[in-house]
Amino acid sequence: NGIVSLGLRDAWSGLSNNSGIGRIFGGGLGLFMIPFVLVGVAVATGALYSFVALFAPRYEVKMGDGRLVPGRSTSIQWRRSGGQGQPRDFLLLLVGREEATYSQGTSTSTAKSVFHERVLFETTVPLAMDQGRVDLTVPSDGVPTFHGKHNKIRWLVCIRATVPRLPDLNDEREITVTALSKEELP
């Protein structure tokens, strides 16, 4: 970013001396510096966004005891554990997602597909956002969690909240859904 600051200093002095755009782009140095300036601004913006996100609300999530299998329920609790700002709205979701990792040439990509999404709790009441408890039921036809080399079936509890003047909260906690045992099968 030191080189970028030199380019910005030259551009600013060109504008402040009323020599205009011709001075900035004269000789090609300004054109050469444009990509570096844009990358520097993007990095600085990302760093500022990450710093501000440190102050966003944080939540702890706890699941009830026992195995979580398709068709059965357990309780889930959340509690605000810190951060600044009051969310405008709060949403707790159960999400089932399939992830497939594949390669094309030298690049690797991961495709994600949501196969189940259900709202567990939704509110705009500030007191209800700080802590609460709901029942979580995996659908009876739900598939168990699976982690293969290139494929995954994941179950997530997602917290989403809109926070004024701060980055929105979008937190995911993975939960494990196990298969029914032989004795439990119908």
Structural description of this entry:
It is a single chain. The termini are far apart. This protein has helices at residues 2-16, 20-25, 29-53, 126-130; strands at 58-63, 73-82, 89-104, 107-123, 131-137, 146-147, 151-162, 169-175. The longest helix has 25 residues, at 29-53. The protein is built from 4 helices and 8 strands; from the N terminus they run H-H-H-E-E-E-E-H-E-E-E-E. Strands 3, 4, 6, 7 and 8 form a 5-stranded antiparallel sheet that branches. The chain has a 3-stranded antiparallel sheet with strand order 1-2-5. Helix content is 27%, strand content 41%. The protein is α+β, with helices and mostly antiparallel strands and 186 residues long.
Average residue pLDDT: 82
Integer count of domains: 2
Shape: flat
Radius of gyration: 25 Å
CATH architecture of the largest domain: Sandwich
Q: pLDDT below 50 for ≥5 consecutive residues: which ranges?
A: none
**N- to C-terminal distance:** 65 Å
Q: Helicity level, as a percent range?
A: 25-40%
Main β sheet profile: 5 strands, antiparallel
- Return the structural class: alpha+beta
Series of secondary-structure elements, N-terminal to C-terminal: HHHEEEEHEEEE
Can you tell me the CATH class of the largest domain? Mainly Beta
Can you count the helices? 4
CATH topology grouping of the largest domain: Immunoglobulin-like
Approximate strand percentage: 35-45%
How many E-type strands?
A: 8
Give the SSE layout.
Elements: H1 2-16, H2 20-25, H3 29-53, E1 58-63, E2 73-82, E3 89-104, E4 107-123, H4 126-130, E5 131-137, E6 146-147, E7 151-162, E8 169-175
Antiparallel strand pairs: 1-2, 2-5, 3-4, 3-7, 6-7, 7-8
Helix pairs in contact: 1-3
